[in-house]
Structure formats: structure tokens, C-alpha cells
Write a structure and sequence with these properties.
Rossmann fold; about 240 residues; seven-stranded mixed beta sheet; two-stranded antiparallel ribbon; globular; 9 strands; about 25% strand; alpha/beta
């Protein structure tokens, strides 16, 4: 199994977040994933057949979103769209957002029936309370730890009351920097997360926790994997 941030990349190069393009780090991340999309489209678009727990949790997430009114669902940091299409097949009105124009173009070519947009996780181009659900599948891992409160506040803003949030990430305390992936020069920072830290920050942002789970590392993975499902309180509970 690859611990790849949902994009089919090797274990140390996981994910893509949408941090602001005015920041030098985010510009480097964007350019790195543009290069990977151009040179390794077959790898970054690999399927999810080897991730039964992830697929089961997507199904639970989808069921909860549908039960709450089945509002639109944003796959934030969607990469080539391989999770966005799974959410759509689960009956959700799913669309993808990614910082990398190359990844967005690849997703649009691969899944022309779905909508994909360029965007920043810190400033989503969405109205308040617009979403029934938001998935960040290995996409907060490029956000510096000190900027997570801003990201979680933005997630809270765009979710409707009762809306569902799902986060997936590698567990740890390390910041890693990659300069090469699949033979392609890159400049990517990856920030591992502690589940307790993330849940505390989510509560501070106004979320209610529903599930926190840890899966031990497998095969080529270097760390355990963390899963969190949280809910924006409904209007009657707010």
C-alpha cells in the first residue's frame, strides 16, 4: 500500500494542500505538483482498490452527508480526482478543488463529468454555509502547523449547519522536505499531525467530533494514519 496523500505517490511525497499562491512555499508546492501531473499522470491517478478502510469511511461520510440533506461536497486538495469520483459514485454532488493547475487539468481530462477548480484551502471561493460536506484527504499535510486554525476556520465557514468534515493524514511530529519524487525535482514540505492536536483545533474552530481513528502503518508506509470525522453543529445545537 502507498501512503501517498491520495495521489498515488511514494510514501514520503504525500498529498497536496491548497495554501495561498502568494506564499513562496505554496508556489513551490503548486509547481511541484504541476510537474508531477505532467510527467507521471499514470502514477498520480492510481486507484483506491488497496485502501478498504478509506473506502469504508468514505461510504460512512457519504451516508451522513446524504442523511443531512445531501448538499454539495468539496474534495479539497483533490489532486487528479480519484477520490472525487468515488464520492460521486456514492451519490454525492462532489467537486474538486486543488492548488495545482496541472492536477486540475488532469482531473478534468480523466473525469469530464465532474467539476474541478483551482483554489486555496485558506480562502475557498465559496459562499458561507454552501457545503453539506468537505473532505481533506491528505491535503492539510502541506499546511504549516501554525496556520491550521485559519484552515479549520475556513472549513467551518463554508460548511452548512450539520455539515460533515473528514480529514485524513499521517500521524507524527515531523516536518519533512522533499526535493525529488519519481525522478522529478520538487520542493514539497509535509507536516505530520497528532490526532489530539487536530481534534483540539477543530473544537476551537467550532466543530463537534464524531470519529477519531488510527490505522497502524502497512507495507511501505512510514507512519500510522489518522482519520477524523467531525460535524459543524446544526442550527438547533449551535
Amino acid at each position: 500500500m502507498l501512503a501517498d496523500g491520495g495521489r498515488g505517490l511514494p510514501a514520503e511525497g504525500e498529498g497536496l494542500s491548497s495554501i495561498t499562491v502568494t506564499d513562496a512555499l505554496s508556489a513551490a508546492t503548486r509547481d511541484s505538483y504541476d510537474a508531477l501531473a505532467a510527467e507521471h499522470a499514470d502514477v498520480v491517478s492510481a486507484g483506491m482498490d488497496d485502501r478498504p478502510l478509506d473506502r469504508a469511511l468514505f461510504a460512512a461520510f457519504a451516508e451522513l452527508v446524504r442523511a443531512g440533506g445531501n448538499g454539495p461536497v468539496a474534495d479539497v486538495g483533490c489532486g487528479p480526482g480519484r477520490v472525487t469520483i468515488l464520492l460521486s459514485r456514492l451519490g454525492l454532488d462532489a467537486f474538486g478543488i486543488d492548488l495545482s493547475p496541472g492536477m486540475v487539468a488532469l482531473a478534468r481530462r480523466t473525469y469530464p463529468q465532474l467539476r474541478f477548480e483551482e483554489g486555496s484551502m485558506l480562502a475557498l471561493d465559496l459562499p458561507a454555509a454552501a457545503l453539506g460536506g468537505l473532505l481533506a484527504y491528505y491535503s492539510i499535510i502541506h499546511i504549516p502547523w501554525e496556520r491550521r486554525p485559519q484552515v479549520f476556520a475556513e472549513f467551518h465557514r463554508v460548511l452548512a449547519p450539520g455539515g460533515l468534515l473528514m480529514l485524513v493524514f499521517q500521524i507524527g511530529d515531523e516536518r519533512r522536505h522533499r526535493t525529488e519524487l519519481l525522478g522529478t525535482p520538487v520542493s514539497i514540505d509535509c507536516y505530520r499531525q497528532q490526532p489530539d492536536d487536530v481534534t483540539n483545533l477543530l473544537r476551537e474552530a467550532g466543530f463537534e467530533m464524531w470519529v477519531t481513528a488510527v490505522r497502524e502503518r502497512e507495507d511501505t508506509e512510514k507512519t500510522a494514519q489518522g482519520y477524523i470525522l467531525a460535524r459543524k453543529p446544526s442550527a438547533k445545537n449551535a
